[in-house]
């Protein structure tokens, strides 16, 4: 029996070292994995924020081209412009508006895209056909024609960006 006692006392420190190495290795592995997961989450948050900022930029661009197209309609129906210069502005504004809408289609949720399409169609219609009411003042009639779809678009965007 004394022999086992001597052997046991020789291996006890070695067993402590082995257990210490195993526990330390497991702790380092666990900390490394936790660090990797935290980095993945941080990277995903940064990507999501960058995508959101890109969408906001394109939504603002869309609103700017819609605003220009509204001015084109006001120039036509309130200021009675229809010359070649106005026609060139009209074509450019409508083209830019539809390109901006297609960008929204690619980058935003379907409900945002649907609201943008509705607004673009209403702006295009008021440019081509004029406001439904032929009375004066025509600038206010143009804005009244567009107002419901613009408000719907802005409401959807606000809810989407929350």
From TrEMBL:
Domain of life: Bacteria
Protein name per its UniProtKB record: Secreted protein
Organism field: Streptomyces avermitilis (strain ATCC 31267 / DSM 46492 / JCM 5070 / NBRC 14893 / NCIMB 12804 / NRRL 8165 / MA-4680)
